[in-house]
Amino acid sequence: MAPNPWKTTTGLGRDFNKVMEKAKLPIDYDHFYGYMNLRVLLEALKRAGKAVTPQSLVQTMETQMSKVDLGGYTVSYGPTNHHGSSFVDIMIVGPGGRFIR
């Protein structure tokens, strides 16, 4: 589960909302998941160095991506942890598929 994409109380939420507003795209969970995954990948690529390979990227994720704060949302990876987050939230889906808090 991801944090509420409409909530701008974290750096990650504010950054996402600004990007979506600039791109004139709807704010929703699908886009937010993609945005968070891109932020994780970019951070891992930075840490992997210039000569990145698939193997070095995996090694970087497993050894250098522990407790990475993406702006109020922390991810942690390791040799036995490929999930990244243990975040849990409750969201109510109302009539017409609308998300209600």
Which secondary structure elements does this structure contain, and how are they paired or packed?
Layout: H1 11-23, H2 29-48, H3 54-64, E1 68-69, E2 74-78, E3 81-84, E4 92-93, E5 99-100
Antiparallel strand pairs: 1-2, 2-3, 4-5
Short structural summary:
α2 packs across α3 (54-64). It is globular, with a radius of gyration of 15 Å.
Oligomer class: single chain
Overall helicity: 40-55%
The H-and-E topology, N to C, reads as HHHEEEEE
Helix segment count? 3
- pLDDT averaged residue by residue: 93
- Shape descriptor: globular
The low-pLDDT segments are none
The gyration radius over C-alpha positions equals: 15 Å
In spatial order, strands of the major sheet run: 1-2-3
The structure class reads alpha+beta
Distance between the termini: 15 Å
Biggest pleated sheet:
3 strands, antiparallel
Q: How many separate domains?
A: 1
Number of strands: 5
Strand content: 5-15%
What does this structure look like?
It is built from 3 helices and 5 strands, in the order H-H-H-E-E-E-E-E. It is α+β, with helices and mostly antiparallel strands and 101 residues long. Strand 2 and strand 3 (81-84) form a beta hairpin. Helix 2 (29-48) crosses helix 3 (54-64). The protein is 44% helix and 15% strand. The strands form 2 sheets. The chain has a 3-stranded antiparallel β-sheet. It has a two-stranded antiparallel sheet with strand order 4-5. The chain is globular.
